[in-house]
Amino acid sequence: MTTHTARGRLSLTGSLFIGYVLLLTVALAAVGTLWAVHLDRATDRQYSERVLSVARSVAVMPEVADGLRSSEPSVVLDPIADHVSAATGADFVVIASPDGIRHTHPDKDLIGRTVSTPPGPAAEGVEWSGVEEGTQGRTVRAKIPVFSGGGSVNGGDARGEVVGYVSLGILTSSAATEARESVPAILGMVAVVLVLGVCGAWVLSRQVRTKTYGLEPADITALLESREALLYAVREGVLAVDRADRLVLANPPVRDMLGLPDDAEGRHLDELGLSERVRDIVSGDDPGDDRLLLAGNRILVANRMPVRVRGEDAGAVVTLRDRTELDRLTGELDGARTVTRGLRAQTHEFANRVHTVAGLLELGAYDEARSYLADLSATHTRTSTDISEHVCDPGVAALTIAKSAQASEMGVDLRLSPMTSVPALDRKVRSDALLVLGNLVDNALDAVASTPHGWVELMVRLHTADSGLPHDLLEIRVTDSGQGVADDVAEEIFRLGFTTKASRDGGTRGLGLALVKQVCESREGSVEMEAPDADEGAVFTACLPVPAAVVPS
């Protein structure tokens, strides 16, 4: 997908690049400023410690104490002060009496005069350091008392009285000059880091462009909105899993189909309470197209499509279609086809019988023809009467007659149990009953089709709540004389896809009993295979709870 940035507007990568550079510039400016301020303060602290240390060293010199007590202090002390100043780089070394009379000074004309700044605590035997304005200018200075017996306050060995003090200082301009000399190094380092940061910002913006496939924010927003609209608009369920089988996407239809919790996304398939078949299809353990599965009272068709990104497995997308109504309609259509086949068989049989009667009449066997017609009429009347007496619901009666004709065509004896009693049913109940009845009878007919003298017995009975049940119960029991079902597969026959018959038509098999189980369980009923008697192959019993309100009185 190719996008074009509107004229006059920066692209996403351009905006990110400029933003990175501006942010880096501001950060480096702040860091450089803090670095310079810290260096300036460190320099001031260094100079304060320096003048304090040198002044203490001068104050404890015996020559200084002796000079201050001599008759001409300046003659003794001035050479010492000049030597110390030259050796330490101090801008001035002033040795004065407690009352502030200078005995030394860089400006010899000021010797013997009163100091420009008061002695302060030094005249009282207390050390002091700080910044003051003097004759040399603004200086960082220290004032240290000189004791007659030697020693110092800092060393804790001061002896005697205060005979003077030493004032030593360095101009603040000298300290500022040293700090300014470090500025080019700071600016150079900031510039190098800025250049490296700009290069890194450019590389990062290129990577962002690659990751977003060159899409601008508006394009990404449009794609996201389109995806959300598509996922929420389709009726099919769509879910996606990553390579670790964690759910990363599920639209509302699939949440409803599978009963997923609200916090399903991000969780592993094993944590979602899905059936084993659903997990097998979603994880890819059960590959193939149009896989059928049962979820609650739904029949779903699933298709799984693996997803590969840059040649690597990135998970899969699974689509689910609800085929419940389609299969119900298909079941009703199969019932109609059964009726049609039964009518076709009856038509064929009727034509044969008419031809038989015509032949008898042609031969002049009138008595035999009359007897043959009487037997046919009695048999037809007996079958119709038997069904109509026990089955009052027209749908169930029609399906029973059709299955009877189908069984007759297959050479199977379909019997109606004398315990059968079916009143008129509600449309919904009738639809479920026809699906269960049709599938169970079809399975029984298939089971005995190849058995000589095979038979199938059908019993449909509505048990009312008057018999002690909590609600009305429609029981459908189908017994056949086939080979039965092996014990090792008795628990599997109701599983979707399981079949003991070869697929002769290439279609999907193993769905009938699964549908029967689904219909029964959707009504909170049951279906089970009972242990047969010696002359029976299999007995299937389905129970459908029927609310009393839906049974016509």
Keywords, please?
about 550 residues; ATP-binding; 14 strands; EC 2.7.13.3; 12 helices; 5-stranded mixed β-sheet; alpha+beta
- Output mean pLDDT: 77
Instruction: Give the termini separation.
Output: 67 Å
Counting DSSP H or I runs of 4 or more residues, the number of helices is 12
Number of strands: 14
Q: Strand-residue fraction?
A: 15-25%
Query: Uncertain segments of ≥5 residues (pLDDT<50)?
Result: 497-510
What structural class do you assign from the helix and strand content? alpha+beta
Helix content: 40-55%
The SSE string, one letter per element, is HHHEEEEHHEEHHEEEHHHEHEEHEE
Measured on Cα atoms, how large is the radius of gyration?
54 Å
Adjacency order of strands in the biggest sheet: 6-5-9-8-7
**Morphology:** rod-shaped
Q: Strand count, sense and closure of the main sheet?
A: 5 strands, antiparallel
Main location: membrane
Domain Histidine kinase: 436-548
InterPro entries: HATPase_C_sf, HATPase_dom, His_kinase_dom, PAS, sCache_3, Sensor-like_sf, Sig_transdc_His_kin-like_C, Sig_transdc_His_kin_SpoOB
Protein name: histidine kinase
